[in-house]
Amino acid sequence: MTTDRLERSGGCACGALRFVASGTAVRVGLCHCLTCQKAHGAPYLAFAVFPRGAVDLSGAHAGWESSAGYHRLYCPACGSRFANLAGDEIELPVASFHDASGLDPQYENWTIRRLSWVAPLAVPQFTRDRDS
Ligand SMILES: [Zn+2]
Ligand SMILES: [Zn+2]
User: Fold this and answer.
1) Is the N or the C terminus of the chain less surrounded, counting Cβ atoms within 10 Å?
2) Has keyword Lyase (predicted)?
3) From the CA of 18, how far away is ligand 2's center (Å)?
4) What is the percentage of the chain residues whose pLDDT exceeds 90?
């Protein structure tokens, strides 16, 4: 999140899927919702949002629609989740980037589902979805 010409790459655990995100992230957040917890098998999802057109995806992927218009993609070979599509935006897991420096969370969603041992960050907190 430093220059307009920044390109960041990342992908799944087995390497079959790759992405390249151009430019700065629109926003970076954490989601503690039940679906993110279960889909990622993790206490929460840290994600970076980019305009859909700013991200090139390569490799065969599978996916499912976890809520209307919200598609969660994963690698059929290794099972890594690597992108969520919503409208004209794409969310990439911060931990899927080869270099996640600068992708620091700016807010937290669904804190009502936060696990008891996960401490809040010093960023805006939203009980459910982000307000704006
Ligand atoms: Zn894979
Ligand atoms: Zn979520």
Assistant:
1) C
2) yes
3) 22
4) 94
As a whole number of angstroms, the longest Cα–Cα distance in the chain is 40
CA of 52 to the centre of ligand 1 (A): 21
- Nearest residue to 112 via CA among 37, 26, 28: 37
CATH code: domain of residue 80: 3.90.1590.10
Domain-embedded: residue 98: yes
Q: Do the domain assignments include residue 126? A: no
Per the DSSP assignment, residues forming a β-bridge with 122 are none
pLDDT score recorded for residue 132:
57
Q: Number of structural domains, the chain?
A: 1
Ligand nearest to the CA of 16: 1
User: Of 10, 1, 4, whose CA–CA distance to 93 is shortest?
Assistant: 10
Q: How confident is the model at residue 131 (pLDDT cuts 50, 70, 90)?
A: confident
| Interval 105-128 mean pLDDT | 98
Q: Is 124 a domain residue?
A: no
The range of the structural domain enclosing residue 73 comes to 7-113
